[in-house]
Specification:
Bound molecules: 3,4-dihydroxyphenylalanine
Order of helices and strands: HHHHHEEHEHEEHEEEHEHH
Distance between the termini: 79 Å
Shape: elongated
Number of helices: 11
Helix content: 40-55%
Length: about 325
């Protein structure tokens, strides 16, 4: 039996080494381990042997099984690698590839870039501020009393440490005055957050573009001229601009700005808030700074805040504000 095992081993290993395909290997496997293969036969012989000889031949059989199955696996993985190389060898590098899709700027970004370019031409430079702000910068310094509804937890996202998600970008006005000497002529843009119910016209996160101009002898005429120039550059020279008296705690007098232009339909669109900086704001900043750089005796200024979503919707005929946030490629690819 020993020589029989040796012969089978020699034959099987020789065939495996010579095999050129996985299917040949499978045939060999069946011949050795299959239902009517060598192993079944040898096992039967083993059982017929005298008891004392069985361990020795059992071990020989075990070794054979081990050796044949290992070399079957080795040869199989070798043939697999060769197979892959053969496929790469067939690769035709001159065939046209699969084109990848081009991205494009989001319609909000397009509007912002356009608006910022106009402000820069008027000498405004960029300022920034974080989305997470102190209550002082978002409300107190902007002359918003502690019982103002905007400060309620129902309307504003508060963090556990007392800070909040800014409800408007006017916080950047305070940041700018805290660290810069007048004159300042800056814009800042970014997200603002309010606890609204999300629907076709409201999101809990939206975007604003804020402007601030402080210098000597800045008047309401400067504010109106700047705003009118800005919107006429944006919507065309025939755009009509209306300043509707309003109230904001941080400006006096305050206005809402309505615009009517063919580019944005025929009706009046409420697009921004603005006004002359309230003396109380200068006072809060002066106390914080500990100097008189922003004393209302020496400086005056105006500020404005433009909501970007509504403007983007009007410009592009978008009916639902949620589309601007959903990141749906079918929607976004229309703006390429
Ligand atoms: N912060 C106001 C808002 O969120 C908009 C605004 C109004 C900004 C008047 C200003 C301003 O800078 O002067 O509705």
């Amino acid at each position: 039996m020993k020589s029989q095992i040796e012969r089978i081993q020699e034959k099987a290993l020789g065939e495996i080494a010579a095999a050129e395909s996985v299917s040949t290997l499978n045939e060999i496997r069946t011949r050795v381990f299959g239902r009517s293969g060598y192993f079944v036969l040898l096992n039967r012989l083993l059982r017929e042997m005298p008891k004392e000889k069985r361990p020795f031949f059992g071990r020989l059989l075990g070794d054979l099984r081990q050796m044949v199955s290992t070399s079957l696996e080795r040869r199989k993985s070798f043939l697999g690698k060769e197979g892959k190389q053969a496929v790469i060898g067939d690769l035709d590098l001159t065939l046209p590839g699969t084109a990848s899709e081009y991205g494009a700027a989001h319609p909000l970004t397009c509007l912002l870039n356009h608006a910022v370019a106009i402000l820069r031409r008027m000498g405004f430079s960029c300022t920034t501020g974080p989305d997470i702000e102190t209550e002082w910068r978002c409300f107190d310094a902007l002359n918003t009393p502690s019982d103002h509804p905007a400060r309620n937890e129902k309307n504003t996202f508060y963090l556990q440490d007392g800070r909040l998600l800014r409800t408007h970008t006017s916080t950047m006005q305070i940041r700018t005055m805290e660290r810069q000497f007048p004159p300042v002529r800056v814009f800042g843009s970014g997200a603002a957050y309010r606890r609204d119910e999300v629907n076709a016209t409201h999101l809990i996160q939206f975007h604003q573009l804020e402007g601030l101009y402080i210098s000597k002898d800045v008047t309401l005429a400067d504010l109106k001229g700047t705003i009118a120039f800005f919107f006429r550059e944006l919507f065309g020279q025939e755009a009509e601009i209306r300043f509707r008296p309003h109230f904001f705690p941080f400006t006096v007098p305050s206005y809402e700005i309505d615009v009517r232009a063919t580019m944005v339909g025929n009706g009046w669109l409420e697009l921004a808030g603005c006004g002359m900086i309230d003396p109380a704001v200068f006072e809060a900043v002066s106390t914080k700074r500990g100097d008189q750089a922003y004393s209302q005796e020496t400086v005056s200024g105006f500020a404005f805040g433009i909501g970007l979503e509504r403007l983007t919707m009007a410009l592009n005929g978008i009916a639902d504000i949620r589309l601007l946030m959903e990141n749906d490629i079918r929607f976004l690819s229309q703006f390429r």
